[in-house]
Design a protein that fits this description.
The protein is built from 4 helices and 7 strands. The protein is α/β, with parallel strands linked by helices and 157 residues long. It has a single domain, classed as Glutaredoxin. Strand 1 and strand 2 (34-36) form a beta hairpin. Helix 2 crosses helix 4. The longest helix has 20 residues, at 2-21. 25% of the residues are buried.
């Protein structure tokens, strides 16, 4: 009887420990907000990889700002990821310098969305509400192009 009680206690302890390990990761952004994967559930995501030294990335910022402001209350989320893994202070300075209005994640969520390596900049991944990568968009895009791409993908679902 003691063996069963000890075994049960070990199993319960192990399950509690594993439950703690399955906690969803959170991502801090350049605005100081915390994001979890749950914040993205049921929403389309445009995940834009950029760098301050990338001229094409900087060229795309006004279009991304426009898209972000248009879609703040929709089921589409635009977030960026700094390719160079800058510190929070550096990201805030870059956002101010380049006039970036949309959030830039401090930590790269690539492994959570199974993106693999980032082959070129800028690149934007369109991720479905189910968390699947639907499109990879290389180079700068206008807000209108992004609208059309999201609308087309939404209709295909």
């Amino acid at each position: 009887m003691k063996k069963i009680g000890v075994s049960a206690l070990l199993i319960v302890t192990l399950l509690i420990g594993l439950a703690g390990c399955s906690k969803q990761p959170t991502f801090l952004d350049s605005h100081g907000a915390r994001w979890s994967l749950q914040d993205f559930q049921g929403k389309w995501i445009l995940l834009n990889y950029w760098a301050a030294w990338c001229g094409e990335c900087r060229k795309e910022i006004p279009a991304l700002n426009q898209f972000y402001q248009t879609h703040q209350k929709s089921n589409v989320r635009l977030v960026a990821v700094d390719y160079d893994n800058s510190t929070l202070d550096s990201l805030k300075k870059q956002a101010e310098t380049f006039g970036i209005k949309y959030p830039i994640l401090l930590h790269n969520p690539a492994k959570h969305f199974k993106l693999g390596t980032i082959p070129a900049l800028p690149v934007t991944f369109l991720i479905s509400p189910q968390g699947k990568v639907v499109k990879r968009l290389f180079g700068p895009h206008t807000a209108e192009q992004l609208d059309q791409i999201v609308a087309s993908a939404s209709q295909a679902q």
